[in-house]
Each structure stands twice: as C-alpha cells, then as structure tokens.
Specification:
Layout lengths: L1 H10 L13 H6 L6 H12 L10 H5 L6 H5 L6 H15 L5 H14 L2 H16 L2 H7 L5 H6 L14 E3 L7 E5 L4 H5 L1 H13 L2 E5 L8 H5 L3 H14 L6 E3 L2 H8 L1 H5 L2 H9 E3 H8 L11 E4 L3 H4 L7 H6 L6 E2 L15 H4 L1 H16 L5 E3 L3 H13 L5 E3 L1 H5 L6
Parallel strand pairs: 2-3, 2-4, 4-5, 6-7, 6-8, 8-9
Antiparallel strand pairs: 1-3
Helix pairs in contact: 1-6, 3-6, 22-23
Length: 411
C-alpha cells in the first residue's frame, strides 16, 4: 500500500512540460509520446486509475525505457522517474509476470545465477572452458549465438583476472583512512582486473582497503527487471556486510546507483545510511586528492559519462578533474558525453534494435572526437561502446578511468 501511495505522490509531480523529451534516448529514436518519460508516466497512472485495464497494453513501452535517468536531470519539477518506473515494473512482475521463454529465462538467470556469486563464478568457469575448446565459435557459426550478441559479450578473462578480491590491503606508508571496496558480480567476472586496479589505486594513495567476504550482487539488474523481492534480499546482505565503514567505494556506476538507493528499496534507516556512505572511486579521490602522481601517458582521451554516474549519482566533474592530473594526457571535448550509450544493464540484449541505434550514434559521436582512448566508468558502457566503436571501424580503445590514474601499471 505504501509503495502505491509513493507512486501516486511521485507521479503527480510531473506537470507534462515536455522538457524531458529531448533528453530521452528512446524518444530520440522512436519519436513516440508513449516512449517518452511523460508519456510513460501518463500510461502508468492510467493503469493505476483503471483507465487502462490490460497491463500488456503499456508493458512494451515500459520495457523499452532504458531507465537512464536523463529525464531526471532535465526535469524542473524533480520527478523521480526512475523510482516510479521501478515500482510499477515490480508491481506488474509480481502480480502478472511476463510470459514467454525469453522472460522466464531472464528471470531465472538473474535470480538463480547472477544473484549468487558462487553460481556466477561457476558459469564463467564453464564459459571460459567453452571458449577455449571452440564452442563459442561453433555457436556463432551455426547461428545459436547471434552476431550482434557475440559482438557485445566480451571474451571471458583468465582465471587470474576473475579471482575475487577479498581481505584487507594496507598502504605502504601512513594511512589516510579505511574504506570498503564493493567488487560487484559482473564487474568481478568480466572486469576483475579493474577491481584489482581500483584496490591498488586506493592503496597507493594512502588508504587501507577492505573487501568484505559477505558482500554480494547489488541487485541492480533484478531491480530493472522488476524482481525487487529478490533484490531486497541482496540489499539486506550488503547492508550487513558494509556496516561500520565510513566509505564504501564503487567503480561501477550502475552498482553505485543501486547501493545509494537502498533506502528506497528497503525503507530502513540502515539501508539509507549505507546509501549515504557509498561513493564512486573518482568522486572519492577527487575530494580527498591524489597523493600518488599518475604515470605519464601521452594519449588523447574522450571521457564518456555513464548515465548512472552523472544522472543517478550526480557525479559529473570528478572523473575529468582527475584525468586532467595525469601527466601528458589530453582530454578531447565530448559535447554529448552524457547521452546514453544504449547498454542499460542487459537492455542491449533484450532490446537490440533500439540499443543498437543508440549505440551507433554514441560510437559516431566518440569517433568524431579524434581521441585515441574512451574512458567510462561502468562495465556495461565499456562493453556497449567498445562493440559499437569496432562496428563503425574505429580503432579507439575503451578503458576505465582508474586504469589511467595508477602511478604504475597494476599487475
């Protein structure tokens, strides 16, 4: 009942001014009012008030939303569109789950594999083995693995680069403080090396780093899919795992946004407190200052802002402020840095047509900067942008900002 009341309170803040339209990536591609933020709010309210009786009449429009939060940045009324959308999708999924094999498989993989660290690690061990004996190439050759999906999904890193980071890591010199490191699920398995580099960067800048054993998946992918019940269990686990730390450091924009919104998800003081203590690694180091000078890098970099960092967390200047301190590094202007790339968790796998067009536009914008590297702080964005840069023939390589801030190369 409380969630329903919250939905009405938040949705009524929308005055349908239309300032969100230009910011919305799906409206930009489709040009339909029903696929704009204000249009979706109107549809969700119509369903709640009984003016629309069949949820399936509006569900496709909700599913086509990337939940990028660009509309929240543009909105003069402060409408919390993301929370409205997530509340309604969760309510629909609980009362009338989506039908079909794809929907059932998505629910199963998110709730029974991604949400469980041990199972996810086993899945990637199998995926690594399958790649090494040629099963991925075979699946691509016979059409079981679509070319578009194959381009998006990176090759599985070695076991060494997928090894979980757990324990306490102390700086060589005097400590400037003690922080916890959130390592994530997909981040750990696909970009484990960046987790290690994040740890090293913090340690080299004087911070003691603790990666708690009890931490788990943040639940963001489940929340976006309407599986809030399962996400709450994960959130409760993380609230307990990160109790007692002044700062919880994240290096994935999507994970950071989910953790910061645990107060909404759980409705407890402890969850709200954890959200306030979560901070992106770039925002943390920009505030605290670098004590270890980054290694010299003679390279031109275009910074691209993950939606859940700039729109959901409000972190905008910290990454470029830090990159500007790298000796030799030149920042290329990127006028459309805050435009969505089309990744949005697993959106690019579920909605490949729209995501592909958004990704193509992003790649063209980045290629036009003339930069050698593209820096962005979210795993999904790194994969999506990298795939579309390759598709448009660009030789630009995608990196995480952390990789450019290290005093020396991390092993």
């Amino acid at each position: 009942m409380k969630e329903t009341l919250d939905f009405y309170t938040r949705s009524l803040d929308c005055v349908h001014c239309g300032l969100c339209l230009e910011a919305c990536p799906t409206y930009g591609v489709l040009g339909l009012e029903t696929d704009s933020p204000r249009g979706r709010i109107y549809l969700m309210r119509a369903l709640a008030e009984g003016r629309v009786e069949d949820p399936e009449a509006i569900r496709p429009h909700l599913d086509q939303c990337l939940d990028c939060r660009a509309c929240e940045t543009a909105c003069p009324s402060g409408v919390r569109y993301g929370r409205i959308l997530e509340t309604v999708k969760s309510d629909l999924e609980e009362k009338r789950p989506k039908r079909g094999a794809k929907a059932a498989l998505t629910r199963f993989l998110l709730a029974k594999v991604v949400a469980h660290q041990g199972r996810l690690r086993a899945f990637f061990r199998f995926a690594r083995f399958a790649e090494r004996i040629g099963l991925r190439s075979l699946a691509r050759a016979v059409g079981l693995l679509p070319k578009s999906m194959d381009a998006l999904v990176p090759h599985v890193p070695s076991a060494a680069d997928r090894r979980p980071i757990r324990g306490t890591f102390r700086p060589d010199g005097p400590s400037r403080g003690r922080v916890a490191l959130f390592t994530g699920c997909v981040m750990e398995q696909v970009f484990g090396k960046i987790n290690a580099q994040t740890r090293d960067l913090l340690v080299q800048n004087g911070f003691e780093v603790v990666a708690p054993d009890a931490q788990g998946c943040c639940g963001a992918l489940l929340i976006h899919n309407g599986q809030e019940r399962e996400a709450r269990n994960l959130a409760q686990r993380n609230v307990a795992a990160f109790a007692g730390f002044d700062h919880v450091i994240t290096n994935s924009a999507g994970c950071g946004a989910a953790l910061r919104e645990y107060g909404d998800l759980l409705g407890t003081a402890e969850a709200e407190d954890l959200g306030q203590r979560c901070v992106d690694v770039t925002a943390f180091l920009a505030e605290k200052g670098l004590t270890a000078t980054p290694a010299r890098r003679e390279v031109t970099v275009a910074y691209d802002a993950p939606c859940h960092l700039c729109h959901a967390q409000g972190v905008r200047t910290a990454p470029t402020d830090l990159l500007a301190q790298v000796p030799g590094l030149r920042l290329a202007p990127n006028p459309r840095a805050e435009d969505c790339c089309g990744s949005a968790g697993i959106y690019n796998l579920l909605q490949p047509g729209i995501a592909g067009e958004i990704g193509r536009r992003k790649a063209e914008d980045l290629a036009a900067t003339g930069a050698e590297l593209v820096a962005t702080g979210n795993p999904g964005c790194m994969m999506q942008i990298g795939a579309h840069l390759r598709a448009c023939g660009s030789t630009q390589r995608v990196v995480h900002p952390v990789e450019l801030l290290l005093p020396n190369d991390s092993k």
